[in-house]
Amino acid sequence: MPDPSRRVLLAKPRGYCAGVDRAVHTVELALERYGAPVYVRKQIVHNVHVVRSLEQRGAIFVDETEAVPEGAVVVFSAHGVSPDVRQQAKDRSLRTIDATCPLVTKVHNEARRFAAQDYDILLIGHEGHEEVIGTTGEAPAHIHLVDGPAGSQSVQVRDPAKVAWLSQTTLSVDETAETVAALRHKFPLLADPPSDDICYATQNRQVAVKRIAAESEVVLVVGSRNSSNSVRLVEVARDAGAAAYLVDDASGIDTGWLDGAATVGVTSGASVPEELVDGVLSRLAELGFGAVEEIEAVHERMAFGLPRELRKPATGPASKPG
Question: Which of the residues are catalytic?
Fold first, then answer.
């Protein structure tokens, strides 16, 4: 029975952000247009449920283009790829569909522009993340990875008067600001990107989780462990004073986490289907948390068009190699 003294604060927005929605729809439409199998380099988005669902429909996820048969259709994930990967696809005569999030593409464009002006580029991000690898590949001779404020101490550049910063799109807004401040202290002439690199959906969800964490004893973040933006939400909730846990779905809830809690906050990463959040809410209702109050920090209206390869007539190839 729901207990009227126990409630859920549900952070909005929830469900797919525009970039994830575009990427998932890209694979679905490619399967409809070209038939199975359609290959996808890396996970299209970082959510195990989404990947499993697309696999069931005929998508085959591979780590590298070498695993894709020559001439086959391959989709590049939302996290983006380097020019080397595009060349590898061309060499194998693959028909490519680029599902890179437009916000990641913007960072790639900024990297090329700063590199063309011979700047050293300080890329704030996490080593090994697919997005960081793709961005670094745009200007490998110019980019230095900076992983958090502490990473700023060891950075060396050729000319302190020609240095700029960029960032991975899924980072903590607060930590990124701290890192930029540390870099600017070391390099007072540090140039900024023309606009904030952190994804609008990442920022919006972090703002929302701060609001619910301030009123919750426990915050549940729905998302996968390899999702950078979901992991950041857990960190933001904890920094705001709540106990916070990451769950893939309702089955990941440990009832012991809820002992003594009157208010549970619920939020989700940008690549989480709404039905997974609904499942968590249903499970919480079973545990007595039946009253749900929605907290909306920012109303999202962003939408992205399909990749150009899927705007072509259905009778044509996904794209000409290269």
Answer: 131
